[in-house]
Specification:
Chain B: Its cofactor is Fe cation. The complex is a heterodimer of chains A (781) and B (332). By secondary structure, chain A is of the alpha/beta class. Helices cover 43% and strands 12% of the residues of chain A. In chain A, α22 packs parallel to α29. β20 of chain A pairs parallel with β1 of chain B.
Chain lengths: 781, 332
Amino acid sequence: MTVTQEKTVPEQRRHVMQVRKRNGDLEPVDVNKIVKAVERWVGDLDEVDPLRVATRTITGLYDGATTAELDKLSIQTAAELTGEEPQYSRLAARLLAAYVDKEVRGQGVATFSQSIRYAHQLGLIGDETAAFVARNARKLDDAVDLRNDQKFEYFGLRTVADRYLLKHPETRLVVETPQYWLLRVACGLSTNPGEAIGFYRLMSSLAYLPSSPTLFNSGTRHTQMSSCFLVDSPRDELDSIYERYHQVAKLSKFSGGIGISWSRIRGRGALIRGTNGRSNGIVPFLRTLDAGVAAVNQGGRRKGAACVYLEPWHPDVEEFLELRDNTGEESRRTHNLNLANWIPDEFMRRVEADGDWSLIDPSDAPELPDLHGEAFDEAYRAAEKKAVKTVKARDLYARMMRTLAQTGNGWMTFKDRSNALSNQVGAPGNTIHLSNLCTEILEVNSDDETAVCNLGSVNLAAHVTADGIDWDKLRATVRTAVVFLDRVIDINYYPSAQAAASNPRWRPVGLGLMGLQDVFFARRLAFDSDEARELSTRIQEEILLTALETSAGLAAEFGAHPAFAETRAAGGALHPDLWGATPTQTDRWASLRQRVAEHGLRNSLLVAIAPTATIASIAGCYECIEPQVSNLFKRETMSGEFLQINTYLVRELKVRGLWTAETRERIKRAEGSVQDIASLPAQVREVFRTAWELPQRALIDLAAARAPYVDQSQSLNLFLSAPTIGKLSSMYLYAWKSGLKTTYYLRSRPATRIQQATVAIVAPDAVACSLENPESCEACQ
Amino acid sequence: MTLLDPGMDLTLRPMRYPAFFDRFKDAIKNTWTVEEVDLHSDLADLAKLSPAERHLVSRLVAFFATGDTIVANNLVLNLYQHVNSPEGRLYLSRQLFEEAVHVQFYLNLLDTYVPDERERHDAFAAVENIPSIARKAEFCFKWIDSIFSLRELRTREDRRAFLLNLICFAACIEGLFFYGAFAYVYFLRSRGLLHGLASGTNWVFRDESMHMAFAFDVVETVRREEPDLFDDELTAAVTEMLAEAVECEVGFAEDLLEQGISGLSLSDMRAYLEHVADRRLATLGLPPVYGSRNPFAFMELQDVQELSNFFERRVSAYQVGVTGTVSFDDDF
């Protein structure tokens, strides 16, 4: 850009504001015309006022703006009223849908099949999908249900429009509408039109959504539809390290998130025999990885992302934990990599016992990464005599906690538990070496097999009615979901040979869920109540059970996955058995066992609870298993900023006549908390606590209770406003003792915040003593 | 001894103004570095901007080029000298560091956004060449100079002059000029543009909020210690000064918005600035002058908790300097 020096002469200000039409003519702005345009989309939204949208739109306009700018501004204006009345979000979504529709039709596209033909000509759609749609054009065109556009909230549809709809390579105009997009995704995974339409209807109702790579790429020329890749540590040699960079770049290019272990690479100061030099350790290599990941742009939709896993006996572990610090030497920092600790139980035991911990160079004990459980314990103890350095286990643990508090990174994931409770670890030599970018995938891999997983999530909010969970609907959703997750494995494009070698053998999938908080709100359950924990566990049992049944059915039809003999299921043990859990649906489990004994399973793993950040936004529900972070917050994404308000709370307040400007201001001032609103009964306030107000013990307890029915793992975030080493070390020890396989981010909050610009000022306070916060006040000491 | 009594007090125990020390400690937890902000992602957006938007951003960059340096200068030349409390000076030292980081951030912004060497020089010359920016700079210089010759605050008049300088930098410069600039950045951000600039600005904004809060703490401390300084004359002077600042900033807005930006009309911008000015008066315990409401919904968004998708952005919500020792029975 350039710095403008010359002063341009302002246009003559006119008394009547004018807009420029698409044909170039100027016409006066007419408030009634805007009102009419908005009114068309009001429909059942009884709380919105089109005149308000119109007048506010005009206030923000400038003289000589184009009609396209006017249209966009009216959408934005409607969206900005969401904080006062959530229905405006729906209104804005409808206005946006109309805008997108106009854009698509403006290119001569009037039907689904035309949009596919057009996008195929533009080189966006794959030949097979184009041919499939051409063959079945009439049926598919008739299946498009435009009414389902009305299910979107504004933020969801904005995300879809900006990032999911295919765009013309030159003009950047979108070439498909939201419904065409979902039907395109369905067609890319279907073998006949009936199947495609069924899957389309499920997604279009927002009851289930596959993960982003599938939503981006299904039906296109590059059908990479998997979310996760788990790459084993490079071997301790230069060629292998550089091969991994190459592999990571390829995997990253097509929207995959990467987990990669680095535990086999020798540490700083270790001897390199070839040159008789000393190694610089892992940090310089991770810097290269960092730069490589940042360089890969996933089709302009998001940056590449990777998480590096390291075992805590590695001699460079302390430097590893500093990689994301924002102070210190830049040449030893990696700002794009995520970090995770892959922790053996022996470490946690020594922390508990306040024992010593030996750091051992992998070149002295190359077997350690491949061992777990007692075999690891023995080998580790034997290798301790070759230790490079000895530290107090608690000092290292405290260092881990500090990294979590300061960066949210350095996730605590537990190696022994992950291996002991995995279906894939049924034969000698099969080891899980790490988890993935979001700590919900646990799959075996090796030097020449990169584990792959494709994901999808059930929207529980769409399965809850006034009477509770609609179990029949949930089962039907899970059955369809598993069939199409399984389908991805065969159609998928594998960016690396190692990925192509692994996935057809193991055929793992990761069916997760989102909207658990919606269920609790709808059922008026406090997140930490016994009822909530019980319900969440029963939902999880239903999901795993139905998924296994479906997979057994697929095995009967297409055969078990090739590595079935190497799994624990082949020996008769299903995931709840590994946990020693007692399921409730005993008859179904019993008949499932028989079918597995007879046909095996089509998929080695079925359930993983992913974070669902983006697809939950599209579906308009709360993320996976998470509690709400606030009753009022904003989302920041590439598309902009969006106010999100708890519509369940608004309903509750409206019923009580409490949804007033004053209440809104109070909630805002309290940063989204309703605990100070005394006119709300205590019981209701309990339900609407935020993640910051819940005991984190409850989050861990819920996760542990559902864990027997999650055969991979869960992306479990934990929340502490003001973390201390004491709180964190207690919390993560509890998580480990609860038997969790993995945890994810530690979320915390800034020490001070931006001064609020729009809530009323409280008059100057003459009291110097801050009694509310005695810890940071020295006046009383 | 009062806060404005001349001298270089060295006594930290007993501590006279522990609230200043708390602010110092809180500020440290918010440490950030320029390297954490990825501005290169903005380059693609810059290419997409309309001429009107490009003009706006270009003017903003020119303002940012010198804005924080001016504030830092006043801090060193005037504030540090007269706030006679070692804990208060600790905070000011920290603030000075933060201003330096901001200067570095905006320099980095300029170097990234403006590849041409000549045009970079022009940006720094804006403080003289571009009338709307020059006018704001003159306003600042006038108030820096107003007490520059004072070595000690002996008289009532000296102290009143000091208070006006302090209030000018807190309420008018950090509290209004910067808040005006932040509004443009957040407007663009709400349209999905210039995320790098916005994420750096979030951090700058967080720091500036603390600077203002500290300055107002000082004002309130002086008010407690020497209430008679706060008479009608001071009120009139503050009100007049703020009115002048609003007019400077509206003039800047006229320049920035001269080509028309949909969603950011001049009348709304004026209302926003007046609203901010009223808030500054309220903080000082003075009645509002304008009675304007905030017209910008995108500024309301700044008042609520952020939740970033970690795939997309760095999360700015973490603290540094976390303390404590390993324990297994803490409540969590």
